[in-house]
Amino acid sequence: MAPETPLNAAESQALDALLTPARRAYRAQDLSDAQLDALWAPLASAAAPAAPRPRWVWVAAASVAAAGLALWVGLDRPAPATGGLVASQPAPTASAPSGPGPLAPGSALAAPTRLPGGAFVEPQGGVQVEVADARETRLSVHAGRVRSTVPPQQGGGPPAYVVLTPLAEVTVRGTQFTVLDDAEGRTTVEVERGVVDVAPRDGRPLRQLTAGQRHVLQPVTARGALAAEAARDWGQAAWLWTRLVRAGGDGLSARNTFLSAGLRLKAAPDGALAAAALVPFWAAAVERYPQGPHADTLLFEWGAAAHGAGDRATAQAVAERLRRDFPSSPRATETKRW
Amino acid sequence: MTLEPVTAESTRPHPEQALIDRLRAGDGVAYRELYRAHAGDVYRLGRQFVHSDAEAEEVVQEVFLSAFKSIDRFRGHSRLKTWLYRITVNRALKRRRWWTRRREVPDEPVQHRLARGVDPSTRAADREALAVVQRCLSALEERKRIVLVLHELEGLDTKEIAEVLQCPRSTVLTRLSRARHALLKAAQAEGVRVEEVS
Description:
The structure holds two protein chains of two kinds.
Chain A: H1 9-28, H2 33-46, H3 55-73, E1 86-87, E2 108-109, E3 113-114, E4 120-124, E5 128-131, E6 138-142, E7 144-150, E8 161-164, E9 168-181, E10 187-200, E11 207-210, E12 214-217, H4 222-234, H5 236-246, H6 251-260, H7 271-288, H8 295-308, H9 312-325, H10 330-333
Parallel strand pairs in A: 6-8
Antiparallel strand pairs in A: 1-3, 2-5, 3-4, 4-7, 5-6, 7-9, 8-9, 9-10, 10-11, 10-12
Chain B: H1 8-11, H2 17-24, H3 28-47, H4 53-70, H5 80-102, H6 110-115, H7 124-138, H8 142-153, H9 158-165, H10 169-189
């Protein structure tokens, strides 16, 4: 039969009989709201268009933001910039022009700076503040203090401004607050106005702080401090992982996304340090997904991280649990060398 | 290079023009709308070409990242969904080929694949039919699988498939005809019988 010859009636009927119910099942597949939200989380911060907007858009946005900001802080705060992220001194009026050219992600900020959404950032004590993502609304603070004044956001949408420390992710929609990452590895958040969410990166419960409140996050253990140290190096990848897991994403998916988001393991200066930092991550994942379809993989990753970190006791305990709970898993046989 | 003739169709305003304008203006709400409207479709389509659910989720993120960044280059010759499908097919196949070049990655079992995101009310018989179709599709060569998924499962017509694959419609028709023959052959190997029609 020539390939282009149409199927005959009987053949078409047979295929249709198979395809019609298959099509129904196929189209019934969808992502749940939780899955959609988990996938959206990193997109929300990274997907803003890189190309500059037409000038009138920026001027209009800046006017609206400036008006809101002025009302909110009683006209004693600098106005938002009219262009991309700029490094500049505080400007005295809402109509002040923007400063020098835009900063690329990864740039360090040493001087008071206004961000496109209207947030005004004051690094203190020579702290370096890095722009951690392409949308330029997420900052990471390393060993220092940063005071932020953020205007309320119009409408809903993703968080407009996030400050990352090795221990926590501080999310805010409109407030005045300070984040300190001190020499002992602690993270301190002080709120002067408004409300912020403090999400510890190691899976501890999220705390919401209101005006006048102060919260200090301590590294839980020596290993926690190592995790914080490594998370500092991994930056975005670690943030993405914890965000996805917290949003209810599938454990293996979170792991894969984590890996492909950077995996910095090879780039980490000390492989053992990186593995040690992964141990609490995988332990938390096992706790969260004890019966999931990838529970054996999560256990394996936990043990492998412990093994890589030289924590023989944990590695062997996890291996024993893996072999006991998932005797038929191919992962179980891979634990023998631990 | 050929110039496209100006037709009534090409001068008609794009049905999604308002959304496209908002996307081009950098409206964050519009990005979210586009994502909510099509993320499920992108996931479902991408999942047909990658090895696992996790990979399909990464495809979703890649597709929308790419779309957000290149919305200014969207020429409006097709629906947004068709444009997203083009990115999806390209991204998913690129991932599959990348993995295939480096190592053998077995596809996750069909039952597991179907377990995710399927409406519980979907009849078991329907799910079983889909499982058979997916097993048959996985036995076909890539270009046949693509046109069958787009036509038979996604319901795109041949003009839309030509837009997704960026090839002439006649090529799609030829591939589709051959692919249906191949699918029937694979289905018969799975036990599907062809009865005489009187």
